[in-house]
Amino acid sequence: MNIHHITRTTILAAAAVLAIPAAAIAAPSLAGSASAPRTTTASTTTTTSCPRGWGSLPEANSRMTQAPVTAVRTGRHACYDRLVFDLRGRAPGYDVRYVGTVYQDGSGFRVPLRGGAKLQIVVRAPAYDISTGKPTYTPNNPKELSNVTGYSTFRQVAFAGSFEGQTTIGLGVRARLPFRVFTLAGPGSASRLVVDVAHHW
Predict the structure, then answer these.
(1) Cβ-based neighbours of 61, under 8 Å, separated by 6 or more
(2) CB contact at 8 A, 193 and 94
(3) How far is CA 164 from CA 48, 106, 119, in A?
(4) pTM of the full predicted structure?
(5) Distance (Å, whole) CA 80 – CA 74
(6) Which letter, b or e, does each residue of 82-104 get, where b requires 16 or more Cβ atoms within 10 Å of its Cβ?
(7) Which pLDDT tens digit goes with each residue over 44-61?
(8) What values do phi and psi take at 128, rounded to 5?
(9) What residues have CB less than 8 Å from 33, skipping those under 6 apart?
């Protein structure tokens, strides 16, 4: 066999072998591209797996407690905005409902609220110490209990007073959206009342 033919054949074979790793390197890149839609799908699944079965009708529990409200907080979640009441003791009852207007406890003055709908939240617990009358929750700005700028659902959280052993909060929301209400024990002997309002139906 001609030596030149052998050399040329060897070179071509070597080039073919060298081409294999390049294809192998390219394969993971293509796999990575193919996996992008799966990531998007997972994200979509997370979005569409938001809790269901909530409604917009009143939710109430008549249990009263003398454990006072000590703080009001808000938080943002993937599917809903959250309002939390911290209490110094036993979990309270509540009355949460959409209303045309929220009024201050005692005085009956109207509480202006931003948003397309208004939730009146009555916590069946005082915002003061029952034995001394000393306030346990005194917001710096009763009209803006929390900065909810950028929230999907919440538009304003306002204090509507604490009178005769119960505390009222006005919550302005984007629209009449479904909500849920529940209580949590802890930390320690404390408790929390939670109101979640969904971003969408």
Answers:
(1) 93, 94, 95, 124
(2) yes
(3) 43, 9, 21
(4) 0.75
(5) 11
(6) bbbbbbbebbbbbbbebeeebbb
(7) 334 558 999 999 999 999
(8) -155, 160
(9) none
